[in-house]
Amino acid sequence: MEKNTPFADQELILGSSDPKISREIKRLVDKGRLRKIAPRIYTADLITSPEVLVRRHLFALLGKLYPDSLLSHRSALEFQPTSTGQIFLSYGYTKRIKLPGVTVRLLQGPGPVEGDHTIAPGLRVSQRERAILENLSISRQSGPESKNVARSYLEQRLDQIVRIHGEEELYQIRDRARQIADSLGMTREYRLLDKIIGAILSTHSSKVLSSSVAIARAAGHPYDPDRLNLFEILFRELKQSDFERRPEKNTSNESFEAFAFYESYFSNYIEGTIFELDEAKTIIETQQALPNRNLDSHDILGTYRLVSNRVEMNRIPRSPSELTEIIQSRHAILLGARREVNPGMFKDVINRAGQTVFVLPELVRGTLMKGYDLYAALEDPLSRAMFMMFLISEVHPFLDGNGRLARIMMNAELFSAQQSKIIIPTVYRDDYLLTLRRLTRKNEPIPYIKMLARAHHFSSTIHGASSDIIQDKLERSHAFGDSHDARLRILEE
User: Fold this and answer.
1) Residue 67: pLDDT above 70?
2) Residues 388, 406: one domain?
3) Which domain CATH number covers 321?
4) Statement to judge: residues 243 and 210 lie in one domain
């Protein structure tokens, strides 16, 4: 672009009714300094595709082409063109205009009202309540050609508002929508919104709802849809995986109890409850807490009482209600000495680990119920164990003890199927936590699956007629080592 022209700093230039500007644009086009990419639209960028340029400057361009227009309907919720390139504006007349990569859908309707926000010079966007009403209007088209999002999507957005901000926020949306509905000619849409919000809050019939997440809330079992999506990702990968069967070899009472001891020892070590091995043995042998570490000692005792009980470890859930009953009863034993964390009772405050915020307290039961349906559809014992462990870990239903409980639930799945239980030794702690984190934060199930499959292989080699034999195998496997200085070794059988 030539310096000192009126367009030197502009990537997109609009044609003008000013003869002087029109002549200058024509001169620069003739010299190859500008190119026309659409009617009345020019650019000094001679390389980038017109589609990319229009998308890059879409809102500014719309404000210039259609001043005093309103980004409305689905575009006011999505803030981008649909998959087929549709963008919707309320304007003075109805028309369809094709631009490179985008089809502008002008819809005759009311202009901006108080509360609609400016997003670019000449362009405003429907405020939240207006956008919701607009998306409840009648549409003759469906899918990406429709001016409206799907009803189920809108209900999911409303449910998300309840989850994040509480019921009061929905009441405020309804009140604001009532205030603007008459002036916009949307009383029909407001009546429908009132029914939807009432159904979500269980004050009206749920028959008006179409979204599974909204229906679940109306039924009193709201769940976390983002977590359910994550569970489905893991479920799909597990359904496509095959695992070697590794039968339980610690079948005598002595070997079973010895394995259970190390299972308890390492499971507590992962959570930072660290004892010297001899100290932990003393706690289990005497069934007494160490004088100076009463609560930590009871954590080890609680874990051991569960995993060393063959009847308890044979219990697996056969229904969603059994799942909640089992985890609550096991938690009551696991952390029975820690009264401050309400053993056996689901959490009543939000818990988190680093950047991860776990399932909200009011969504715990519903999310466990939804997760159970996927768990029940798995057949392979290790697949069910992997899924169950992640389900409990990710929901984090209690104030404390969730990791230990998740591993107990995992091993109950294996033991009930006569498969070797899993130990996560100290040397493998980082592998365990890092792959869990990758699944939680990046939706990557394969590293998690491979990690537990390897842990299962390792654990199946840890067997023997006595505690000393099992300890020797653990030592030769580097199980007690620090993950920074050693690597888990799987012994040859």
Assistant:
1) yes
2) yes
3) 1.10.3290.10
4) no
What does the pLDDT look like over 79-92, one tens digit per residue?
Answer: 999 999 999 999 99
Which is it for strands 69-71 and 123-125: parallel, antiparallel or unpaired?
Answer: parallel
Amino acid of residue 209: L
* Cα separation, 38 vs 50, whole angstroms: 8
- Enumerate the H helices of 135-186 as residue ranges: 151-165, 167-184
How far, in Å, CA of 340 to CA of 329, rounded?
Answer: 17
Nearest to 447 by CA among 271, 236, 237, 232: 237
- Two tokens at 296? 């930590």
Cα distances from 359 to residues 231, 256, 329, 343, 350, in angstroms, run: 13, 35, 20, 18, 8
Burial 335-355 (b: 16+ CB within 10 A, else e): bebbeeebbbebbeeebeeee
Q: Please report where in the chains the tokens 């390139």 appear, as a residue.
A: 85
Question: Band of the pLDDT at 266, cuts 50, 70, 90?
Answer: very high
Q: Do 347 and 321 share a domain, yes or no?
A: yes
Q: 302 with 446, same domain?
A: yes
SS3 179: helix
Q: What is the pLDDT of residues 354-410, one digit of tens each?
A: 888 899 999 999 999 999 999 999 999 999 999 999 999 999 999 999 999 999 999
State the pLDDT at residue 6. Answer: 53
Shared-domain flag, residues 173 and 309: no
Distances (CA, A) of 376 to 117, 225, 232, 380, 467: 48, 19, 13, 11, 35
CA 453 to chain centre: 24
* Summary mean pLDDT of the chain: 93
Whole domain around residue 85: which residue ranges? 48-145
pTM: 0.77
> Please, what's the b/e burial string for 34-61 (b: 16 or more CB within 10 A of its CB; e: otherwise)?
beebbeebbbbbeeeebeebbbebbbbb
Q: Clarify whether residues 132 and 200 are in a common domain.
A: no
Angle, vertex CA 342, rays to CA 341 and CA 345, nearest 5: 125
Q: Report the alpha-carbon distance of residue 248 to residue 420 in Å, rounded.
A: 4
Q: What is the DSSP pairing of strand 12-14 with strand 41-43? A: antiparallel
Q: Hey, CA dihedral for 401, 402, 404, 405, is it positive or negative?
A: positive
Residues 274, 417: one domain? yes
